[in-house]
Structures are given as C-alpha cells and as structure tokens.
Amino acid sequence: MASLQNAQIDQTYSALLKVGDNGEVNATPKAITGGDGAATNIEMSNTATNFVSGTVDFTGSTVSGLPGGATADVPNIANGGQSVPLSSYGSATYWHAASMVYGRPNISLPAVDQGTNEMLLTVFNIDSTKTVTDFGIPMQVLSNDTLHVGIYETDTTTGGPGLLVKSVTQAVTTADNNTWVVATPATTFTPDADKSYYIGCMTPGGAAAGGLGYVGGEGAGWQRFTNTNNASVGTLLAVNTLYTSTSGTLPSDLSSASFGHRDELAFFAWK
C-alpha cells in the first residue's frame, strides 16, 4: 500500500476520501467521494453507513453481530399440514400419507415384486413443523416376521435416499394380517428445516411373509419416469417406489446403492 507521507496535497488529494459536500459528518447521510469528487457507492452519517449501489463483497471476511435468520424449509408438494382435530371415525383412525396420493385409491397387498430382505422407499413429504410419533404400515402377514421402518435424508448429489436418520423395528405375527401395523420409534422424529427425506420399509421374509401395501400408479403424483424406449411415444411408467436389496437390516447409507423401481406407490403413513 502506498504511503502519502511527505506527498504534496495538490498532487495526491484525489486519493483521499471526503464528504461529498465538503461539509461535516452529521445525522444526514452524505455521499462519500474521492478528493476530486469521484463517486463511490457509500453514504455515511454519524449513525449509519449505507452502500447505495453495486456489490459488497465479503469473501474471505468474518461478519459478526448479524441476527440469525430462520432456515427455509425444503419445498414439498405436501407436508401433512392439516392437523385439525377430527372425530367422525375416532381420533385413532386419522393418519397422514407419507407421499402425495390422488383420488380415492384402494390399498392392495402385498407389494408387487417385494422380495426377501428388499426395502421399498418413497419420497417422504413432510416439513420441519411436524413431529412424527408413529408410523402406520398396512400389511399382509402370512407368517411371523419383523417390520423395519427407516427415514433417510435425501442425498444432495443424487436426489435419492442417503443417510439413515431414524429407524424402528416392529415384530409382526399372523394376527396382524390385513391390518395397519403401528411402529413407534423410541424417540419422535422432527425433520430439519433445510432437508428432505425418503421413507422405506423392509421385511426379511418379503411378500411371502410380511407383505407391504401399495396403491396403483394412477393414484400417485410423480415426476421421474421411463418411456420404456426412445423409439416412439408410448406408455409412460412412473418411478414411484424404489427397490433395493439389504442384508436383513436397514443400511446406514444408501447414497451409493442401486435401485429397481415400480410405478405402484408403496403406501406408508404417519401421525
């Protein structure tokens, strides 16, 4: 940085900063200019400094003292927002669908192509204003099995399921056949505001033992699909449910997993 020491004022005054009107600094914001009157993007008073145009670049700087702002929720097409008290059928009968469902579909059992140790996952439409105390899973139980339920953060690279953040296991027996199995985690689950999630379920016995429920693809909202071939315009198959093999327990990280898919939507619920 060059010094003005011993420099003549008439030769260096343009390098100085001054109040635009050559007056004193007071309560009225005034433009700050170079000594020759060249404009800057700064106004200053004895109580405030204003940047009136251009860009203020704090790269490499530490800014302190600013009030903390709220973290925005990741947008969801649905978030289970309606929580008004309802009693027409008894309060215990009311749930939130984990994924957006359209129309008035029936739940079918068991899920198509549900193999042994195979986990089925769908997008979990929920935001940080909600807290989950129970999961409700419609099931066909033909022999005793174990239901595994997991919540996975969305991986920011692939947009698919990533790290496991909540899990619960629930023993099921043939007495649970064709019922809503309630799985209650040891602690409640509240989503983070800046994250989105997937919900997945798995039974070691698969459809032959602990079958999961689903609704037809016509009852689900979707974005990703396959046209089955690129040669002509034809039937679209939505990617509503992801399928992935496990070792019989929930994987801790699915960010590198490979998936099959179905257009039917595995149906999971929560309250």
What this model shows, in words?
Helix content is 1%, strand content 32%. By secondary structure, the chain is mostly beta strands. It folds into two domains: 16-51, no CATH class; 96-270, Jelly Rolls (Sandwich), CATH 2.60.120. Strands 9-8-11-6-16-17 form a six-stranded antiparallel sheet, with no helix packed on it. Strands 5, 7, 10, 12 and 19 form a five-stranded antiparallel sheet that branches. A four-stranded antiparallel sheet has the order 1-2-3-4, with no helix packed on it. The longest helix is centred in the N-terminal third of the chain and has 4 residues, at 9-12. The N and C termini lie far apart (64 Å). 26% of the residues are buried.
